[in-house]
Design brief:
Elements: H1 29-55, H2 61-81
Helix pairs in contact: 1-2
């Protein structure tokens, strides 16, 4: 019984991917509306959490507040990019 097997090595060459295209969100209006509603609710929830954290005196509240504020900015930027208002 031969314990040594020949292994064929191949070189990896990444293929160039076509430039990323933005999906067409207008194609499915209901999905777009659901996404907009969800993002608005998430922003409102994060704003509420920030208000609670500002009222509390927890040790790391400022760090958490800054993180939530960045999340809100990202969500609003996404909505603006896709013409979802607000």
């Amino acid at each position: 019984m031969d314990l040594i097997r020949e292994v064929e090595f191949t070189t990896y060459s990444p293929q160039k991917e076509p430039p990323a295209q933005l999906p067409v969100l207008d194609e499915y209006r209901s999905i777009r509306d659901q996404l907009h509603g969800r993002l608005c609710r998430e922003v409102e929830e994060l704003e509420c959490r920030i208000r609670v954290l500002r009222a509390s005196r927890s040790r790391h509240s400022q760090t958490i507040i800054r993180t939530y504020e960045r999340m809100i900015q990202q969500k609003r930027r996404f909505m603006q990019q896709w013409g979802m208002g607000r």
